[in-house]
Amino acid sequence: MIDGGLNSYHLQYLLWGALWTIGLSLIAFVGGGLAGGVIALCRVSPIKAVRWATIAWIQIIQGTPLLVVLFLCYFGLSIMGLELPAIVAASIAMIVYVSAYLGEIWRGCIESVPRTQWEAAECLALSRTQRMRLVVLPQAVRIATPPTVGFMVQIVKNTSLASIVGFIELVRAGQLINNSIFQPFTVYLLIAIVYFAMCYPLSVWSRKLEQRQQFGNNRGTAPPSVTTA
To answer: Boundaries of each ABC transmembrane type-1 domain copy (predicted)?
Structure first.
């Protein structure tokens, strides 16, 4: 394995690290998305206590570095007698982190639906659940798609912090390789290239979605609306 330079084994190890990075990103996005959806709905709840509880959750998580959340999930839970593998602790920390940000992003998208749509749905005597499911959320999803795709770039990049708790993703794989061949510039340049290859398509997709949405608005095409006829 140690031959003074990069070889095919090292490259294969980096690719495996990249696959684990993608896997952790998907876990964080799916788990954090489900929790974020609940948080977003709680943020627009008519119950004041629910709104304040979710506001407190968002402020605490957004005000805490992800690195600290990782330490709490890995070392903090172990002190309490709950030993978690690195992948589980990293997944929990990423889900907690993503839930707060996606919840706030989606809350803003829900509230950006024109009030006339809410009022028209109310005039149809729809229940609050029906108004959200049939009128508000379909329009909010369309608005939320570009920022959500853009945030996925942050999720991919933030998985690099999972190396702190021993999870072998792309950065940790690069560290182990560098400890063998002592070529940090080459190794980390490759890591940067792999991250760019993963994140750039998401950035382009997000910009295209945003431009498409702006183009539709400029043409005067509005989201599906509710009519009282």
So the answer is: 18-206
